[in-house]
Design goal:
Length: 263
């Protein structure tokens, strides 16, 4: 691929979601889960998606990941329609999903087709990125929940995906660990420049981490409002500006909940 072709490929948003709808079929019924959802994600951007429980957030993430293939509209990554999973997308789930019988190094390197010496160096490099240097020989049971989740992030980063998809990655953690992991995730994103899309039910978390927050409404899922969070990183949760953004997002979320339960 020549220089001009690369520039064309890298121009415009990394991810575009245009008029996407998704209908589930079963037992003689049709349920429209997503209706005409549209937004884009720029390279290096952190976008959070919030909305009422069951509104279709995870379904939308699965469509972006290529795990759901039957949909209307267009989802394109680097201009190519998403129709199946690919190494250009990494998915991080609420649970770390590490294999308990493998060490952290073995979990992080699972499936890599490089020699053992090179693998060891690569894994150590990415464990350093998530502050887990020295834990390569440990087993998942020997780590805290936050440490195990950082290991799963290292596993995803090592494969150098174009975009990381995070499905409530901190949802299973206790309040104090979650607070600390939000700061760790902010550091990882700032240091690596990855494009990230995160589903969360925590509005403060969304405002703390994101360049933009997409608020969804349900029945069926639509975009209610998109907030640009024009605050520098690292962010100060106690600042007046942070509180204003949080209040505005809370207001939109509450409105989506009123709409949700009034149907």
């Amino acid at each position: 691929m020549g220089k001009e072709e690369k520039e064309i490929k890298n121009s415009g948003p990394l991810l575009e979601i245009r008029g996407v709808s998704k209908t589930f079929h079963g037992k003689g019924k049709e349920v429209k889960a997503i209706n005409e959802v549209s937004f884009s994600v720029e390279r290096g951007e952190f976008v959070s998606i919030i909305g009422p429980s069951g509104c279709g957030k995870t379904t939308l993430l699965r469509l972006i990941a290529g795990l759901e293939r039957d949909y209307e509209g267009d989802i394109t990554l680097n201009g190519v329609r998403v129709e199946k999973p690919g190494l250009d997308r990494g998915v991080i789930f609420q649970e770390h999903r590490l294999l308990p019988w493998l060490t952290i190094e073995e979990n992080v390197s699972l499936g890599l087709s490089v020699d053992r010496k090179q693998t060891h160096g690569l894994v150590n490099q990415y464990l350093r990125k998530v502050d887990l240097e020295g834990f390569g020989n440990a087993y998942p049971r020997q780590l805290s929940g936050g440490m195990a989740q950082r290991a799963s992030i290292a596993r995803a980063l090592l494969r150098k995906p174009e975009i990381l998809l995070l499905d409530e990655p901190l949802g299973a953690l206790d309040a104090m660990t979650r607070y600390s992991m939000q700061e760790e995730l902010e550091k990882i994103w700032m240091n690596n420049g990855n494009t990230m899309i995160m589903i969360t039910h925590d509005i403060e978390e969304a405002v703390f981490l994101s360049d933009r927050v997409v608020v969804l409404e349900a029945r069926p899922c639509r975009v209610k409002e998109i907030f640009n969070i024009a605050l520098k990183h690292p962010r100060d949760r106690s600042s007046r500006q942070f509180d204003e953004y949080r209040t505005n997002v809370v207001s939109a979320f509450r409105s989506s909940m009123v709409d949700y339960y009034s149907i």
